Amino acid sequence: xxxxxxxxxxxxxTNDDSLVTQIAAxxxxxxxxxxxxxxxxxxxxxxxxxxxxxxxxxxxxxxxLMYFGGWNCLSLLFADADVAPYQLVKIGEFDREMVSxxxxxxxxxxxxxxxx
Length: 116
What we know:
With about 120 residues, the protein is mainly beta. The protein has helices at about 20-25, 95-105, and strands spanning about 1-5, 10, 15, 30-35, 40-45, 60, 65-70, 75, 80, 90-95, 110-115.
């Protein structure tokens, strides 16, 4: 997937699974991500996806693209965090340049998401 933030284009390496396929089918997307704590930005998806067969974790790491079914949202991690009791599904990874941009961004970021 391709993420555009502040005019900068980043490639996000996504898993090859049904959850990613469902999200890709919604693209292109223009979402506003809100900062939560000192570790992530999140945004709700326009349609619910099925995560029932996905492996979930409470341990998240900088540079991960995650999905949280409880709020039907994508999460962009810019710092490591244990998010228990919440359980997220890792659906991809992005590079340090995108992590760095997110770390210094404000309360929200606008992101355009498209398939390559």
